[in-house]
Design a protein that fits this description.
This protein is mostly helical. It is built from ten helices and five strands, in the order ααααααββαβααββα. It has two domains: 14-155, Four Helix Bundle (Hemerythrin (Met), subunit A) (Up-down Bundle), CATH 1.20.120; 165-250, Winged helix-like DNA-binding domain superfamily/Winged helix DNA-binding domain (Arc Repressor Mutant, subunit A, Orthogonal Bundle). Helices cover 58% and strands 7% of the residues. β4 and β5 form a beta hairpin. The radius of gyration is 21 Å and the shape is elongated.
């Protein structure tokens, strides 16, 4: 069964699933907004939620809400003692990743004063990527899918909030009228990484001619690898290069 928001990790109580998704999307949102300290703090919350899920799974009973173990390192090491019949990822690999992630939150100047360094982009990037890996692994194991499918779902988990976009009467409008058609297109796609139909994009950017928009904007941007344009489904998806262009040139 394809993974979607309705069947995501259904074996886990709703409250725990909500905490898991909220902590991850908080990391992602704060990172996009270059708020390094809150992004890293959310990494600590994600560790606590994931630890609760792992222990609940192997104990055969989940608590309703996540809780912080007295000592995260010792608690994660204890998970390695569960029988080898449980997936190695849940017993060893994810717990060891949580230990590293929690170390950044506690001892790199994030959770309290006195750390070695102040919150910064490098540490926040590490937190984001480790958190994505942990969540992808949970999905891979619980849904029995390949790593690529799990990772792709994480990329489409939540739409990005962009203050330059206004939702009105079911249509998205880019408020900065100085942006080019390409920039408006990339900004809209950046907000919705799962993709947007060509017709919706055309309506949102208010181009005067659909054929010209397809030829001069979508196809040229596709060739430049800023986006992926599928001429059959007419779905347009932003690429990593396109996302970087939005972050560096439009949102900066």
């Amino acid at each position: 069964m394809p993974i979607n928001s309705n069947n995501l990790l259904l074996a886990i109580p709703d409250s725990l699933r909500s905490e898991l998704i909220e902590s991850y999307t908080g990391i992602e949102k704060n990172f996009r907004e270059r708020r390094w300290e809150p992004s890293e703090l959310n990494g600590g919350k994600l560790c606590e939620v994931v630890y609760t899920i792992l222990k609940g799974y192997m104990d055969g009973r989940y608590p309703n809400n996540a809780s912080k173990p007295r000592n995260m390192v010792d608690a994660c090491r204890a998970l390695e003692q569960y029988p080898s019949s449980y997936p190695r990822s849940l017993r060893i690999q994810i717990p060891r990743m949580l230990t590293a992630l929690y170390e950044i939150r506690n001892n790199r100047g994030v959770g309290h004063v006195g750390g070695d360094v102040n919150p910064n982009k490098m540490d926040a990037t590490c937190v984001l990527q480790m958190s994505k890996w942990v969540l992808s692994e949970l999905i891979r194991v619980f849904h029995n899918v390949e790593t690529t499918e799990a990772s792709n779902f994480i990329d489409t988990l939540s739409e990005r909030e962009v203050s330059l976009i206004w939702q009105v009467n079911g249509v998205s409008r880019v408020l900065d009228v100085s942006l080019s058609m390409l920039q408006k297109t990339l900004l809209l796609l950046y907000q919705s990484p799962s993709g947007i139909s060509e017709s919706n994009l055309f309506n949102s950017v208010e181009h005067s001619n659909s054929s010209t928009y397809r030829r001069e904007v979508l196809k040229k941007a596709h060739k430049a690898k800023l986006l992926e344009y599928d001429p059959l489904s007419r779905i347009v998806t932003i690429s990593p290069i396109g996302s970087q262009k939005v972050e560096n040139e439009i949102l900066k």
